[in-house]
Amino acid sequence: MASDSDHDSTTELLDEFRAIIARSQKDFLFTCSGSLSCDNDPKASEDANPVKDPVTIRWDPSDASTPASQCKITFPADSESLSALIGDMQQATFGLGGKDVLDESYRKALKLDTTAFSTNFCPYTAGIMDTVSRILVPSVSENQTCIVRAELYKLNIYEGPSGHFRSHVDTPRSSSQFGSLVVCLPAAHSGGGLVVSHKGKTINFDWGSATSPAVQWAAFYSDCEHEVLQVLSGQRVTLTYNLYACKTSPEPDKAVLNTPLAKHLEALLSNDKFMPEGGFLGFHAAHAYPHSSRSFQANTKSAPGGVPPLKGIDHVLWQTATALGFKCFLRPVIGYEAYEDGEDESSIVQGIGQRLAFDTLGGEVECLADALRDDYLSKSIHPEDVEWLNHCGRKNQEVALAYTAYGNQASTEYVYSYCAILIQVQGQGSETDEDSDTGMEVEPASPPVISSAPFGG
């Protein structure tokens, strides 16, 4: 039986590691930016890499009789030269409930799809993708990197004095998409700042205040809230790219063990007084993922080593624990408010799902709490039995399962989940779980006995 002093020492280690996690999470960047000078004057290029060739846009005219020679523009550009391009653009919509919606009170902008225009601008040759790969796609050494693909998505123009796009979060086009890149071409305008927010931090990219012509850009994670402030005058011209993580190395590199986070995690997990009977450390993912989609699960299984496409602190924690020799799992966590049969007061049904992929509860569901416990939740582990390293953000939700509810009439209802990383700690004398390469489907061999920590906050 552990003594009070042993309990105090492991609690202190755990609290120290929670503090390290909190500090590390604040230090991780959710966006990066830069500029490329369009001025040949060497003095103007001291603080920005120069653009080697003028940026050119060519587009398909809406009137077939318009000569192709009139459908080309080179930047820097003024309002008069932009008029022909603007005349051939369409009003921009936005996604809502799986549909494209046109509402100028929410978004007022013009757009061209990639099928209607081309450009000579390349974010790779401009050096942008090198910066994005270093900052937004974590790596622990030169041998442990993720290949990033930038796919041109749209050409947009926000015109003064009313162009804008209210705060929103992008919808990923696939499970491998992790972010967006916005490139602002040199055209005079004021206002129209790109405001990006995540976890209480906000950055405003005020490209309209540039004093000399430059290609300016910003990249950020897909789950970051962002908006385009009102353009007061001129035209704000941007190219938007979707960013995809294409491949990650199969094996964690031991260089990750040199970080402070790794040293504190190793000190905690190597303490034989910590979780002597085995158990799990839990971390609610700091970023949003389409974790309940089968494509996300398939993308993870097909990646070398089954490493999931995680971002920021999520990626680093996974790689650190794996490099230390501990098994990691991705699991959905639910906290559902349910009413028991015949009861007026609700109760919170908490649990960890058996698998990430979207599921359906079959048949008539008379009591959701019972159906969840019987058919969806893990029988071996409960959120209250996990030492959670952070609190649940309550925002990064995905649909976990659907069921048919019966009242006056049948209706389809949904339960939502949060993505969590579970780090398995083997008890003294226990055998290592070798049932899965991915940690996506495996159930723990036996119920862990762990001191509890709060689910949310």
Can you offer a commentary on this structure?
Pfam families: 2OG-FeII_Oxy_3 (PF13640). Residues 430-457 are annotated as: Disordered. Residues 431-440 have a biased composition (Acidic residues). The protein is an alpha+beta fold. It has two domains: 4-28 and 250-425, no CATH class; 31-135 and 146-247, Sandwich (Jelly Rolls). Helices cover 18% and strands 37% of the residues. It is built from seven helices and 26 strands. The chain has helices spanning 4-27, 79-87, 128-135, 260-269, 294-302, 312-323, 368-376; strands at residues 31-37, 49-50, 55-59, 72-75, 90-91, 94-96, 99-101, 107-108, 110-113, 117-119, 146-159, 164-168, 177-185, 189-191, 194-198, 201-205, 214-221, 225-228, 231-248, 279-284, 327-339, 346-352, 359-365, 387-388, 397-406, 410-425. Strands 1, 2, 5, 9, 11, 13, 14, 17 and 19 form a nine-stranded mixed sheet that branches. Strands 20, 21, 22, 23, 24, 25 and 26 form a seven-stranded mixed sheet that branches. A five-stranded antiparallel sheet has the order 8-12-18-15-16, with no helix packed on it. A hairpin with a 2-residue loop joins strand 15 and strand 16 (201-205). The radius of gyration is 25 Å and the shape is globular. Mean pLDDT is 79; it is low at 41-47 and 432-457.
